[in-house]
Design a protein that fits this description.
This protein has about 170 residues and is of the alpha/beta class. It has a single domain (about 5-165), classed as Class I glutamine amidotransferase (GATase) domain (Rossmann fold). It has helices at about 15-25, 80-95, 105-110, 125-130, 155-165, and strands at about 5, 10-15, 30-35, 40-45, 50, 55, 65-70, 100, 120, 135, 140-145, 145-150. It has a 7-stranded mixed beta sheet, sandwiched between helices.
């Protein structure tokens, strides 16, 4: 069974950016594991609860086939987090699928993996992507090789389907 790790903020992650892709991935038999800055209950912006079973520093690249960074206001705790940036780089170097939705695209930009890559992000993150060398497209969903970026909750289901597509290539 394929496995993906969702890196999710402990507070104020965007509910539908978490549960809609998770449902789509699980429906096709991909196991979704959640990691955060803590183990235990995580709180979405609108009351959704998720459970983290890993801290991000305990994620082993070899245990997962892909990684996704979930957006929402809380995801800014990962923008300069050494472990979050290192994970993105390690998955990138291993050519494993890497995904981000909403403002979480800033994490990928800060990790340096969007340089010369087509990418999108929630409008607040546009300047960060451009500053770090991404080719900002502004479209709702972008796939550039093994990197999937989406700009917000409206495309959460398409984001989930795109992850499935890239994981199955």
């Amino acid at each position: 069974m394929k496995k993906i790790i969702f890196v999710t903020a402990p507070e104020a992650f965007r509910d539908e950016e978490y549960y809609k892709p998770k449902k789509i991935l699980e429906e096709v038999g991909i196991e979704v594991i959640t990691a955060s800055l803590k183990i235990g209950e995580l709180n979405g912006s609108f009351g959704y609860k998720a459970m983290s079973t890993f801290t991000i520093q305990d994620i082993s690249l070899n245990d997962f086939d892909a990684i996704a960074y979930i957006g929402g206001n809380g995801s800014n705790v990962f923008f300069d987090n050494l472990y979050a940036l290192e994970l993105a780089n390690n998955f990138f170097k291993s050519k494993k699928p890497i995904a981000s939705i909403c403002i979480a695209g800033v994490i990928l930009a800060n990790a340096g993996i969007l340089r010369d890559r087509k990418a999108t992000v929630f409008s607040d993150g546009k300047a960060s992507l451009i500053k770090r060398g991404a080719i900002y497209t502004g479209v709702p969903l972008e796939i550039d090789g093994n990197i999937i970026t989406a700009n917000g909750p409206e495309v959460a289901e398409d984001f989930g389907r795109a992850i499935v597509k890239v994981m199955n290539n």
